[in-house]
Each structure stands twice: as C-alpha cells, then as structure tokens.
Write a sequence for this structure.
C-alpha cells in the first residue's frame, strides 16, 4: 500500500513545481490557481520578490503542489492508497481522495487562509520543539500563554501563540534539553483556540460545497485532525473545519498509515519534512518526498516498483 502525505506550509520555494510544471494532466490545476494568486503559480514562485510564505499565498501554493503531484501518482495506477494531510495539507488530501474538485480545494484554501488571518491578528506564530516529552512542552507552553498546536511524535511538537512568548518558550525548552526549538516561518497561531472564529467561518464555507463520490481506486482518506478514516463526509467536514483551532495529532495519522499496511510513503511536497517524520514512524517502509526525484518517470517507476 502507498501512503500519500500532503505537506503543510513552511517549505514553499522557487523549485516546488519543477516536476509538475509541464505535466499535461496538471494544467487545469495551475489554471485554477492563477486567478486566486493573481499570477500563474509556476511564475509566481520564480519571482525573486515573491512572498511565498504569506498565509493566503502559501496555503494556495501548498494545495496546488499536492494536487499537481497527485497527477503523477495517478499515472502509476497504484492498486491501494491512503492519503493524509498536515495542516493545510488536510484540505489538499480531500482533493487527492476525490471528495472535492481541485478548483474547489484551491478556492477553499483561499477562504481558509482569509478566515485565519482575520481571526489571528498581528504578532502571532508557531514554534517547533523537539527532544522533550509532549507533557513537558505543554506545561511550559501554558506558562507562557501558548498552546499545543500539533503532536508530531512523543518528543516533537508545534506550539502556537504570540511570537514574543514563543521566543521565551524556545529559550526555556532549549535550557531544559530540547534538541531543537525554533520559530517557524508562519505568522498565524494555527491549530490553537485563538482561531476559533476561523473554524466557524470555514465550516460555513464547507457547508456550501458539493461533495463528490470518490472514483474507483481513490485513496482512503485519513482525517488530519486525529488519524481516523473519513466514512461520514459530514462529520469529516466538521473535523476539517475544527482542525484550524484544535490540536492536530499528526502522530496518529502516521500510525494510521502503519496500521493500514503502508509499505511505501510519498510526500507530495513541497519539502521533505513529512517524509523525515514518516521514516521514524514507519521504519520498514520505503519513504521518499516527491522532491527526491529528478523526473516524472522516476516517480512513476518508484511508485510502481
């Protein structure tokens, strides 16, 4: 079984569409993203003055990357797949699973980001902390008025709050023995109660969408919030909205991939962060990020191998 992982924000870069930019099957996706971004995403990421990490731009770009990369996977015709997404990647996963049209995914990415920006205000962000127990990190975060945003592993977490408080938290956790404690290139306290209004707003937008019946062979969709399989789409959409303002359990998503028997894992990008975490969680699986490959043919051969 092939597990597909849709990346969250933070790793956008000028070469993120190198493998997919000329793929005929991906052209409608790039065309759908263009009016939302005000430029073709392939051109936008190449501009030296482009802000690829703005919340709205970043979320649209990440969904464009995952949806276009999935077109390469489809060329391989894998018999069994599972898909999960990290943060904004959770929305992209619904597109890869055939539950929503790609154009709807991109439009919803813009709506999601706008709702988050409206709810968060200035001076907020996220920090990544590795090397301490989740319990210890949670207690320290609470002392600084911050919130646990993502459980990546038993000793790896993302915390959200005011950037000044996160700076202080990084200093404290480093002194306590953390291997890594850094501010992330995100300016929104995603997956914390601070964004409760954004969850409510996004739920209203999702309620207006028409869900598709997944086509034959579509990946099994795993909920990014808690690693459960989406069987009831109404409940699934509720969790998709709630994850904006609730702690997400990425470790549970990786455990779900393992329990469903994933023998290969492919991160759809941009970046390699999810592949790195998957190597630890699924040590017996073959794991790669799309950006490890030099050609579409190489990806197709690896997926089919």
């Amino acid at each position: 079984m092939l597990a597909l992982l849709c990346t969250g924000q933070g790793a956008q870069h000028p070469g993120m569409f190198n493998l997919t930019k000329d793929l005929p099957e991906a052209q409608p996706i790039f065309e759908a993203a263009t009016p939302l971004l005000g430029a073709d995403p392939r051109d936008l990421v190449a501009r030296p003055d482009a802000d690829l990490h703005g919340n709205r731009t970043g979320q649209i770009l990440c969904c464009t990357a995952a949806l276009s990369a999935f077109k390469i996977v489809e060329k391989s015709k894998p018999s069994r797949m599972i898909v999960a997404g990290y943060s904004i990647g959770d929305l992209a996963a619904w597109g890869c699973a055939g539950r929503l049209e790609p154009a709807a995914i991109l439009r919803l990415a813009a709506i999601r980001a706008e709702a988050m920006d409206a709810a968060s205000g200035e001076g907020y962000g996220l920090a990544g902390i590795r090397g301490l127990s989740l319990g210890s990190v949670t207690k320290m975060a609470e002392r600084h008025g911050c919130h646990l945003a993502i459980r990546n592993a038993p000793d790896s977490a993302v915390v959200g709050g005011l950037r000044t408080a996160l700076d202080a938290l990084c200093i404290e956790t480093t002194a306590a023995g953390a291997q890594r404690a850094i501010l992330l290139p995100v300016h929104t306290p995603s997956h914390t109660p601070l964004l409760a209004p954004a969850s409510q707003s996004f739920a209203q937008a999702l309620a207006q969408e028409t869900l598709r019946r997944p086509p034959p062979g579509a990946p099994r969709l795993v909920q990014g919030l808690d690693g459960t399989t989406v069987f009831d789409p109404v409940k699934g959409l509720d969790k998709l909205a709630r994850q904006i303002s609730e702690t997400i359990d990425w470790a549970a998503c990786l455990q779900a991939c393992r329990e469903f028997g994933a023998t290969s894992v492919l991160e759809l990008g941009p970046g390699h962060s999810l592949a790195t975490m998957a190597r630890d969680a699924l040590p017996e699986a073959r794991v790669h990020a799309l950006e490890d490959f030099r050609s579409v043919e190489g990806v197709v051969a690896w997926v089919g191998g």
In short: The longest strand covers residues 124-130. The mean pLDDT is 96. The beta strands are 2-6, 81-85, 124-130, 147-153, 156-162, 180-183, 220-221, 248-249, 264-269, 286-289. Residues 116 and 198 are 5 Å apart (CA to CA).
